[in-house]
Each structure stands twice: as C-alpha cells, then as structure tokens.
Amino acid sequence: MSRITACLQALKAQGKKALIPYIVAGDPGPEFTVPLMHQLVAQGADILELGVPFSDPMAEGPVIQLAHERALKHNVSLTSVLAMVKEFRLKDQVTPIVLMGYANPVVRMGVEQLAASAAAVGLDGLLTVDMPPEEAVELNLALKAVNVDSIFLIAPTTTEARIQSIVDLATGYLYYVSLKGVTGAANLDIVSVKEKLAQIKAKTDLPVTVGFGIKDAATAAAVAKVADGVVVGSALVQALATLVESKGLGAIEPASQLIGDMRKAMDSL
Length: 269
Prior knowledge:
By secondary structure, the protein is an alpha/beta fold. The protein has a single domain, classed as Aldolase class I (TIM Barrel), CATH 3.20.20.70. It is built from 12 helices and 8 strands. Strands 1-2-3-4-5-6-7-8 form an 8-stranded parallel barrel, surrounded by 10 helices. Helix 2 (30-42) packs parallel to helix 12 (252-267) and helix 11 packs antiparallel against helix 12. The chain starts with a helix and ends with a helix.
C-alpha cells in the first residue's frame, strides 16, 4: 500500500477529508521550500503537492506562473525538486508528497530514471498535467514498479468515456479540476462539482480531490462536504509572495496559517 492510499484510508476512517496544499518548489527561493513543507504539515496538511518549475506552465493562472518564473531564476529543476523531497524525508517519513508538473522535464530525465529517483528519495505520486492517459502507459508502468502513484486530472468537460480511460490508469487519488480555465479562477459552483463527482465515483473507488477556485476556509469547507480532499494552490502561493517582501523567511509561518484556517473549517463539518 502506498503512503497516499494509507493516508486517505486513515482520514476516511476518522471521518475527515484530505487537505492538500500546492506550492511551487523553489519559490520564492530554494531555501523556502523544505521549511515551508514542514510548516504546512504542522498546520494540518495531509498530502503535499510540489510544483516542478517549468517555462510554459499552461494550466496555471498568473499567480502560479509568476511562482514558476521566480523558481526558474534560481535554476530549480526536476533534479533539484527531488533533492528537496529527500531533504524533507530526513524529518518526515509519513506525509505523502506528489510532484505536479509538465511532460517536458519528465521526458528529458527519462521515465526509468525518474521512477528510480522517485523511489530513492521517498516520493509518493506524480501528476503530469499535459500527459494524457494514452501517452502515459510507459510512465505508469515504471512508477507502478516502484510503488509511486499516478495521479490524473479530470475536468468539467471530460466525457464519460474519457473518465473511464483515466480511472483505469490512475492510482492514489484523482484530481478534479472544478473550473474551466486556469488555476486561480473564481466562481466555484459547488452544485456542479457535486454532480461531476457523482459521475466520476460511479466509475471508480479511488478518492476524488478537488482543486481550482479554493481560496479561503469557507470555500475549502464547502468543497470538503462533497469531495474526499481539497487542493489549494494559488491562494497559498499568493499569500507567501505577498508576505515575503516584508518578512523574508519569516513569511513561512503566517502564510501557512491559511492552511491552518482551512483545516479548522474542514474539521468542523
């Protein structure tokens, strides 16, 4: 059993929903990432998603695009991010970590090398935004061999047939994109999210998390009522970017408080 599956099963047994913050590794500087990861766990995060910096993050809105740019100024690469995971594991062997990124760095490293490196550093899952299931078979097999989960996105426009092809390959959990558009978009419609989740869950027993449009404790709690987990990215990335100008490394704790507030709201349901 993977760390992700163990985590989600334990939460379900406790009647809790997963809180999954997303940050861009190396933003605003490499020295922030591992301390921030530990602080997010302290605030109640269950799974951590680390964005792999990329020059053309097509699924991202302005906030996260800028975070990718800041990280790339420090030459943060896929290899760098794996090293951060290894460092995090020196103090935390429990919290699952998922890398979220784009196909280009994966292809450049090679799927076999990535799988071997992922296993060596203690990575638990990989979500490759622009790699459709038809092209992910080789990567999927390599990850499965080392017990690393393959996470896939499902969008509001994904057809029934397409959902089936995705869930047939996915392990760990599914990530439902609650809105049409890029990360950081607004106008979250809980009713439509609930309807789509029912459609997905009719085809799989995998937990389904929801991201995009979750900006505060209230929206996190609303989504937690209908989903197995809540993914928050832009709001957290923006909070850190705003605070770091005046506080430097001291921005980590107050920025992470957003996750603490979401945890309290989700647990009060």
